[in-house]
Amino acid sequence: MLPTSISSMKSLISPPFSPFSPLSLHFPKTKPFAFFSLPSKTTNVSYPKFLHVNPSMPSPRPPIFSIPIRQSHIETPQSFSPCGEVHVIVGPMFAGKTTTLLHRIQAQSNNGRAVAVIKSNKDTRYGLDSIVTHDGMKLPCWALANLSSFRQKIGPDAYDQLDVIGIDEAQFFEDLYDFCCEAADHGGKTVIVAGLDGDYLRRSFGSVLNIIPLANSVTKLTARCELCGKRAFFTLRKTDETETELIGGAEVYMPVCRQHYVDGQVAIGTARSVLESKKLECGSCT
Ligand SMILES: [Zn+2]
């Protein structure tokens, strides 16, 4: 990430959230289903009351315009605890992970908390200065190569005043575990993480599963199987590329149920062997 790119990013602390008008929320046909969620012990904290935020700050460096009164997250108000929370949202592609993340970020912002959202700079499909869901919701964000650079990029003072950090496409961040530990355990932040739990071969993807032991809550979302409409738990890659990280949308991936994942893998394997045999035939033709 070049400094000029970073400097052109919009403010992320308590952004305006105009894209979040409830009327503008449209779920895709792959409306997510949360099939398990472990509720946080500390979800009943009372949030600060509220400092209104300035929605339009043109400064390239995020200004500090919301300084919430941080309240203790523990039940004993006599002793201040700096501890925050970690919440994890996983599932296949098209399950609504980013939409869920943005809804939670919006809710936190509506409660007067200072928020910021980070995404990987590997995913450039919708530009680097915003986070966009498959159904068109959009929010300014920091696009970074790693999470450890976030504090320096946003500035230590701005970082200290943040209450909530959202992380999207978390499977691309190798330093996810250390960042969540530091931010929640020592920084007092609420970290909301969204990412793929598995890759197209249903192997653990990046560090997302590593942070489950850190989490206050885990939510696994499902999509709709593109072939039969049942719940989809997996992401099937439709092309024959084999690298783990292949950025793409519906042209490359589709959500599938277990049966169609298995059938799809067989079909793809068959198609690949047919194509390879055709290549051999063509090679011998000339
Ligand atoms: Zn199916």
UniProtKB/TrEMBL annotation:
From its record, what is one biological process in GO terms?
Answer: DNA biosynthetic process
List, alphabetically, the SUPFAM superfamilies matched: Glucocorticoid receptor-like (DNA-binding domain), P-loop containing nucleoside triphosphate hydrolases
E.C. no: 2.7.1.21
* Pathway participation: Purine metabolism; Pyrimidine metabolism
- What family does this belong to? Belongs to the thymidine kinase family.
Reactions that this protein is recorded to catalyse: thymidine + ATP = dTMP + ADP + H(+)
- Transferase found in the keyword field: yes
Q: Is Amino-acid biosynthesis tagged as a keyword? A: no
What is this protein's name?
Answer: Thymidine kinase
* GO molecular function annotations of the record: ATP binding; identical protein binding; metal ion binding; thymidine kinase activity
**Keywords on record:** ATP-binding, DNA synthesis, Kinase, Metal-binding, Nucleotide-binding, Transferase, Zinc
